Amino acid sequence: xxxxxxxxxVLLATGCGKDTVPDTAVRPVRTITVRxxxxxxxxxxxxQIQAHRELExxxxxxxxxxxxxxxxxxxxxxxxxxxxxxxxxxKDAQRSAQxxxxxxxxxxxxVEKNEARLRDLLSENAVSKSAYDNALRELRTAQEQVTSARxxxxxxxxxxxxxxxxxxxDGVITRKWAEPGExxxxxxxxxxxxxxxxxDLLLDVPAELLRQGLxxxxxxxxWLAGAPDVATTATIHEVSPLAxxxxxxxxxxxxxxQRPRGLLLGSTVMAEIRLQPRPGFVVPAAxxxxxxxxxxxxxLDRQTMxxxxxxxxxxxxxxxxxLIGRGLADGELVVTAGVQLLHEGQQVRLLGAD
Length: 354
Description:
The protein is built from four helices and 24 strands.
C-alpha cells in the first residue's frame, strides 16, 4: 500500500513538470503600430488673477499718521488722497525757510543799491576801485545767500508735501498696513494699491514646460475655475529663470487680453498651455523599459515574430504616454503589454493590437 502511494506521488510530480512553461515559451503580447506625427501637447495649470501693478504706498518722511482716507475695497483715481501725516514739524521748517529767504532778499536789495551807487561814483572817479570791488563782492555773496535760502525753502516745501500721500495710479485698495495715531517711518507701507487697468495671470510652471518651448509672447486660453463660460485669453510677458526653492516651479505672468464679467482679483483660474509641436512617436507609458540605463522599447519583427530591445530618445512625458523623438521608424510594431517578461530575441504571439 505504501509503495503504491509513493508511486502516485512520483507520477503526479512528473505530470506537473510537463505542464511547466519553459523560459523559451512563446509569450503573448500586445502591440501598436507607431506613426510619425507632429505632436502638439496641451497642459492645463491653475493660477491666480493679480493686478499687473500692485504698489505698497508709503510716505517719504516719518511722523504720526493723522488721517487715512482709504480702506480696503475703496476705488481710487490717480491723484486722490490716501493718507496724511501730522506735518507740524514740516510746517515750522517751511516757515523758518521762508523767513530766511525774506531776510536774504532784503539784504540783497540793499547791497544791490549800494553797488549801483558806487558804480556811478567810480565812473566819476569819486571813489576808489577797491571800494567798488568790496561792494561787488558783497553783492555776489548776498545773491548766493538768496539762492541757498530759496533752495532750503523748496526743500522744506517738498517735505511738507511728502506728509500727504496720494494715489499714483487708478486702482483699488487691497490691504491696509497702518492705522491713524501710529508713528510710521519713512518707507513704511500704509496701504496696498492694485492697479485697475491691467490684470495678470500668475502661474507656477514646471521647468519641464520651459524646456519644451514655453516663452514670452505665447497666448493662453483662460477660464474661471468652476465657470468655463467666464473665459478670455492671456499673453505671456514674463518668465522667471529662477525656480522657487520650495516648489521648484518657475513663476510665469501673462497679461489678460480682456476682463470678462465675473472675474475678480484673486480669482482662481485654469489656463490651457499649448506647447510647440514636436515630431515623434507616441507610445503608452507601459511600453517603456530600459537598456543599459537608457530608455528603451521592445520592437517586434513581423517576419520572425521575435522582439528586439531598442534604445530610444524620449522628448516628452505625459501621465499615460511618452513621446519618442529618435530610435523608431514609421510603421514599426512596439510592444505595449507584457514587456516585463521578454528577453532579447524571444518569439512572441499577438493577443491583439492596441
